[in-house]
Give the backbone structure.
Amino acid sequence: MNQENIYSSVPETAFAIVKAMNYNKPIEIFLKNNKGRFYTAKQIAEELGYPTRGTQVEVRKAITILLTVYKVPIISTAKGFSYARTSHQMRFYADRLADRLQGLERRIKAAREVAVIMEGEHE
């Protein structure tokens, strides 16, 4: 997968910032040194001195790159991000992502159906 397509809604300039500042390695080391503990993107940003504005898109992007490109075992839950300790945790995370994807697919289908209904009302 091409790195630039991971977050298609994020401007390319944000990606350039992530690459230029090399966010990947410090986050990997931090999470690996704190296995079993969960941190929000904001906590990671604060802990490592990264920008803390908004939703910390640069940190989230770096975490996505670590997982998808470098295959670093990072999981995400409602508690935050963590370095996975077992393959079971990674499989469980993958299953939860698949569940979320199915939910998104249902919402996409419903949104398209509503658009067709709305188009019919305006004719």
Remarks:
- Helices lie at 12-21, 24-33, 41-48, 57-68, 87-121.
- The two ends are 42 Å apart (CA to CA).
- The chain has a mean pLDDT of 85.
- The chain has two domains: 1-85, 86-123.
